[in-house]
Structures are given as structure tokens and as C-alpha cells.
């Protein structure tokens, strides 16, 4: 048998229709808000925020910094400051080398030529062949050349049985020291010449500025005198 509809107090057919209408309205509003909160809405909002930019007007700070640094380096090279500093540094280094004050760290980092190693390598190249007789440590008297004395024995050192290694010759050391002094003198001359040239350029520049200032002052005086002459005639 069909069930009877129970009557609810305060709820009638009109109130049920109002509830259905309110439910339908809320569902439609939810659909609309869901559509506008999707990716399309974000795209439209982002598209509205994007402003037109001129790509040619944009500036790169890194490029500008490198260009400014290149200009400064080019100016320093033209003025001769870089060459002057390099020559001064080289002269100081050679002076330390000549006095024997060059430390190991400076020799490894700054100095390009190791004269001590060159002398040792040259001595190794002049090493005589090893002989079978281990007891022979010096040449006999009859094999000495004419005019050679016993002082030549001090230029050898013994490195084992039957093996003698030539040490760096004194004359070779003197020659290397002379070469170093010659290079130092050349570097000093170049540095002095460059310094004098820079001083002359600075003097000429100051003289030109002075002449230009005096010329402007003279022109001002002439202009004032020309203005005063018509006033005196009146």
C-alpha cells in the first residue's frame, strides 16, 4: 500500500519550492566561480598585467660595466701607466736577485728564469763518463794541460765512486750576474725615459691650459674695454 505523506509543521509546498530555487541559485553561482578561477581566468588576468616593454631600451649592467672597464684599461695603456708599472716591478725584482734577497715564494711566483737550476743542468751536461776504475778521483799529472794548476780541482765535486760532477763555473756565474745587471740597467733606462716622457706631457698639458686661460682672460678684458668706450663717448 502506498505510504501517506506526513505533514511537517511549518513546511508547505511554497517553502519547498523556495528551497529548491535557492539550491539551484547556489549551484549556478558555484559553477560560475569555478569557471572564472580556472587557468583561463589566470591567463586573462596575467595578460592584463603584462605591460608593453621596449627591448631596445633595456640596459644590461654587466655589459656596461665591462665596457667601462675596457675604456679604463685602454686609457691606462695609452698613458703608459701599465708599461711603467711593469718596468718598475721588473727592475725591483732584478735588484733583489742581484743582491740575493729574493725569497723562495717570490722566485716561484714572479721570476721566470731559475739561474741556479740552469747552472746545475749545465754542470750535469758537462759530467764526464763513469770509468771502471773507482779509485780514480782526479786526473793524473801527465794528463793535465799546459798552464793548468791544482786550482781546477776545486771546481769539481764527487758524487760517488768514480763519478765527478762539474760545479757551476765562477766565470759563468759572473756572466749571469752581468747579464742581470745589464737587464736591470736597461729596465731602469726605459722606466726613466717613460717617466720623463710622462712629465713632459703633463708639463705641456699644463702649459696649454695656462695659455688657454690667459687667452680667455684677455678676451674678457678686450670685451669690457669695448663696452666702456661707447659709454664714455656718450
Automatic annotation (TrEMBL):
Chain segments carrying region Disordered: 121-151, 187-209, 215-234
The keyword Glycosyltransferase is annotated on this UniProt entry: no
This protein's record includes keyword Cytoplasm: no
Bias (Low complexity) ranges: 224-234
GO cellular component, one term: nucleus
Record's keyword terms, sorted: Coiled coil
Protein name in the entry: Uncharacterized protein
Organism: Brassica carinata
Amino acid at each position: 500500500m502506498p505510504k501517506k505523506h506526513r505533514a511537517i509543521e511549518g513546511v508547505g509546498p511554497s517553502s519547498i519550492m523556495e528551497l529548491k530555487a535557492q539550491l539551484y541559485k547556489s549551484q549556478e553561482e558555484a559553477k560560475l566561480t569555478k569557471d572564472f578561477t580556472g587557468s583561463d581566468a589566470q591567463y586573462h588576468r596575467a595578460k592584463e598585467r603584462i605591460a608593453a616593454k621596449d627591448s631596445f631600451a633595456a640596459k644590461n649592467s654587466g655589459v656596461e660595466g665591462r665596457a667601462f672597464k675596457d675604456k679604463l684599461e685602454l686609457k691606462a695603456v695609452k698613458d703608459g701607466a701599465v708599461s711603467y708599472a711593469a718596468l718598475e716591478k721588473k727592475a725591483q725584482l732584478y735588484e733583489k736577485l742581484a743582491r740575493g734577497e729574493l725569497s723562495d715564494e717570490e722566485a716561484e711566483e714572479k721570476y721566470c728564469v731559475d739561474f741556479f737550476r740552469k747552472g746545475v743542468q749545465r754542470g750535469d751536461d758537462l759530467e764526464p763518463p763513469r770509468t771502471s776504475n773507482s779509485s780514480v778521483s782526479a786526473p793524473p799529472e801527465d794528463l793535465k794541460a799546459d798552464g793548468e794548476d791544482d786550482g781546477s780541482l776545486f771546481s769539481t765535486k764527487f758524487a760517488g765512486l768514480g763519478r765527478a760532477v762539474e760545479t757551476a763555473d765562477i766565470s759563468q756565474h759572473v756572466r749571469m750576474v752581468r747579464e742581470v745587471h745589464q737587464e736591470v740597467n736597461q729596465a731602469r733606462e726605459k722606466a726613466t725615459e717613460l717617466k720623463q716622457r710622462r712629465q713632459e706631457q703633463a708639463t705641456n698639458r699644463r702649459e696649454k691650459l695656462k695659455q688657454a686661460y690667459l687667452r680667455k682672460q684677455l678676451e674678457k678684458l678686450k670685451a669690457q674695454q669695448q663696452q666702456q668706450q661707447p659709454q664714455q663717448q656718450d
